[in-house]
Design a protein that fits this description.
By secondary structure, this protein is mainly alpha-helical. It contains 13 helices and three strands.
Length: 308
């Protein structure tokens, strides 16, 4: 895996050159070497880029800190150029502070941070594409909330990002992370699987538990279409980040309880690839079906075309 810390416009992106094509390859190496999941992934990066362990780790630390900075710089007053995004993160922050809610503090904050990150993306602020800009809220919302509420050390969070990156590498190699190629299952679904594996690691999960958490999360997202209103990464993308983030947390907890995916993790990824290929083009980021052609969406397009 080759990690490259890049800023492209407002987006910080992790570029990956693939070494692992299956999760089984990673878990086998973990078992054979006795090393942690994150170490196996980091050593692959070291080999691919010909860098030291310190250089590899510090590159990933920059990625984690960029997520923190993006979260801290959220501006509730900003609105996207379309007017479709902005301000909901502040509503969720107020909701989180209200004790009269059904969900606990952890998930309430995950929801809040996921929306804030998605809105920042829509408002052209700097975010981390993890793995894509459209799914930028999933991994940061889960990891930043975990660190805050569990008082985890930064190094541990960086290790969790290596875990997520290893899962992402397999998804890129064996399926897709692009909505235009595989539908939203490839974006939000991939991010959710990566986050689920990262949380499982943070909670002391074994390599087997990490990949099963990823599989459970991905299974819940199979078939998700990419049908953005007006072709913008705003509706329904931003709120789907919430679904992906919460799904990641609950999937990790299923594994912690002893639940496993009945379908092996790599077979789940293979299924996502096949489903993505079978999805019609109209449901893969073309704006030709789904939510993108509802009466309200058509009116939005007309308004934007008229410059209103």
């Amino acid at each position: 895996m080759c990690l490259a810390f890049l800023y492209i416009g407002s987006v910080c992106r992790m570029e990956i050159n693939m070494s692992f094509a299956t999760l089984k390859e990673i878990t086998n190496l973990v078992e054979e070497s006795g090393k942690a999941f994150w170490q196996v992934v980091m050593e692959d990066d070291m080999k691919e880029r010909n860098v030291s362990a310190e250089e590899s780790f510090e590159t990933m630390r920059m990625m984690y800190r960029a997520m923190e900075q993006a979260d801290a710089s959220y501006d509730p007053g900003l609105r996207s150029a379309s007017g479709l995004a902005g301000g909901d993160g502040e509503k969720l922050e107020k909701f989180r502070k209200n004790p009269n809610r059904l969900i606990g503090d952890f998930l309430a904050e995950v929801m809040e941070k996921a929306v804030k990150m998605g809105e920042s993306n829509a408002c052209m602020k700097r975010i981390v594409a993890a793995p894509t800009a459209g799914s930028c809220g999933v991994i940061p919302s889960v990891l930043l909330t975990y660190r805050k509420q569990r008082k985890a050390e930064e190094d541990k969070m960086v290790q969790a990002l290596f875990v997520a990156a290893g899962i992402g590498e397999v998804l890129v190699a064996s399926a897709s992370i692009a909505g235009a190629e595989g539908g939203c299952q490839a974006e939000i679904g991939s991010a959710s699987a990566m986050a689920a594996g990262a949380v499982s690691y943070l909670e002391g999960g074994s390599a087997e538990e990490i990949v099963h958490a990823a599989a459970l999360a991905l299974k819940n997202m199979l078939g998700l279409t990419c049908d953005p209103v007006a072709g913008l990464v705003e509706v329904p993308c931003i709120k789907r980040n919430v679904a992906g983030a919460v799904n990641a947390v609950t999937s990790s907890q299923l594994v912690a309880a002893g639940v496993r995916s009945a379908i092996p993790p790599d077979e789940v990824i293979d299924s996502m690839r096949r489903i993505g290929r079978q999805l019609p083009t109209c449901l893969k980021e073309t704006g030709q079906e789904g939510l993108a052609i509802t009466p309200t969406a058509v009116e939005v397009v007309k308004r934007l075309q008229n410059g209103d």
